[in-house]
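For the sake of transparency, this paper describes our internal protein records without simplification. Because each token names a local backbone shape, the row as a whole describes the fold. One such record is reproduced below, unchanged from the form in which we store it.
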Amino acid sequence: MSYDPYVSRRQEQLRNAALIAWISYAVGLATSWVTGPIGFIIALVKRGDSVGTIWESHFDALFRSGVLCFLGYTIGWLLVFTVIGAIIGFPLLLVTWIYNVYVVVRGGLRLFDGRPY
């Protein structure tokens, strides 16, 4: 097996893109998901570039969790503003936030270990 600098550089670029996306998701936890769309867009753009690498699973997880969290937060906030819906809305927001924390922590830890999501 020979050393290919292009493959190594590509892997490093994908790792850095995943790192930036995970950081934007983590900052989004504290800022009501203001920075989350940045990570989502990075995941969407880099998803195709990462096919066949260990980073593919990170971009898939970023994309999947971004969609699920967007839906959870949107539906939760819409329900909160109705009397009956608040009974469902607040727990939905809490569950979505806990899921979001889990995904970000797991993704970050696996990224730093150099492992797939």
